[in-house]
Amino acid sequence: MKYFWLEKYLKYFKNFKEEDINTKEYKSIINDFYNDFEFYITHLYYSKERYELIKKKPLSKLSDYELITMFYYMVIETTIVNGYLNEILLDKSLYKLIKQMVKVPDTNLPITDYTFKEIIDEIKELKNNLPTKDKIKNNNVCACYNCHSIYYVDNIHAVDENKLLLCPYCMDNKLYFDNDYIPMNNTFLRLATLYYKDNNITDLVSLYKDKVILKDKPSNDTSLYLDLTSSNILKDKELSYNKINDKYEVSCNLLLNGHTSKEELLISSTIYKYLLVCEKNKYLELEINLNDTYYHYSNDITINTIIVTILEYLSKHYFTNINKITIISKNMEFSKLYNSTIKDLDNLCK
């Protein structure tokens, strides 16, 4: 399913009652929901106007981009007006919408074997690859590097004043197509977004280098220790305080099996979540440990995803209280590739 990250909220939202509002569980789940919303959902232009056009249609009749428009507007509007989601939780409207959204088929595509330098070169060329109307005739699939959506070209119905095609999800013209032979995986789209949206990409790369280091073992003075695994043996361990090590610790088993955007999203969303945890709790340091025994996954995908995730976080939280982010790996091949990739990162600024 395309919106797999929403599935975990279905059961809780289905059974939500007014007496749940002041519980610790409710606050935790809603906090996770907002964190996921920040990571997965991009600002959608004209959402109010588009919502007004579709609000009376049955949910079962809504297209994917109409569902996401309704979801975006419902959450944003309710939060701005009321300051919380209680109203749309109690009347089950949010539950019913999410129930329909998780029926949307998966759109994750395989990850290409481009090097990081090749990815940056392709991103820089996107500005010369305009989404003209003739693209619809010669392509099947489209990707948007404004909202990260991937969809069939027959969903495109609008053009801007320059007669450039507009994304049906966000109404932006930052599009490219399958026959352009450019990667359509999530990390590529998010890095392209940063490159074209962030006017201070040089400062962002510099900030990354100031805050992020690579080590082969944990330190003794970190605030939050995130252990990433990918194994059929281990289970997740919830965030807890370790008195002996004097740090908060959490273990996440990502169960990475394929090589698609879904695996990128699992890595990225987990790291992003705990960056936000550090932000909220004013933790000064985060350590991301790639468990040398139980984390066995593509070095390329892992490195590219971690770098882009941290860059994206820093772009949204430029003045974060986090002083240091440490990536821990004992894998020499990983370390060599990471250091090479960091050198290539400078090409974003040229």
Question: What's a quick, concise take on this entry?
Answer:
With about 350 residues, the chain is an alpha/beta fold.
Written account of the structure:
The chain has 350 residues and is an alpha/beta fold. It folds into 3 domains: 4-101, no CATH class; 116-197, no CATH class; 201-349, Leucine Aminopeptidase, subunit E, domain 1, CATH 3.40.220. Helix content is 45%, strand content 14%. The chain contains 13 helices and 11 strands. It has helices at residues 7-14, 24-40, 47-54, 64-82, 86-90, 93-101, 116-125, 135-138, 186-197, 201-211, 261-281, 299-316, 332-345, and strands spanning 141-144, 150-152, 158-159, 165-166, 175-177, 212-215, 224-229, 237-242, 247-253, 285-290, 324-328. The strands form 3 sheets. The chain has a 6-stranded mixed sheet. A 3-stranded antiparallel sheet has the order 2-1-5, with no helix packed on it. A two-stranded antiparallel sheet has the order 3-4. The longest helix has 21 residues, at 261-281. It is globular. The model has no long low-confidence stretch (mean pLDDT 94).
Strand content: 5-15%
Low-confidence parts: none
Helix coverage percent: 40-55%
CATH level-four homologous superfamily name of the largest domain: Leucine Aminopeptidase, subunit E, domain 1
Query: What is the radius of gyration?
Result: 21 Å
Q: What is the CATH fold-level name of the largest domain? A: Leucine Aminopeptidase, subunit E, domain 1
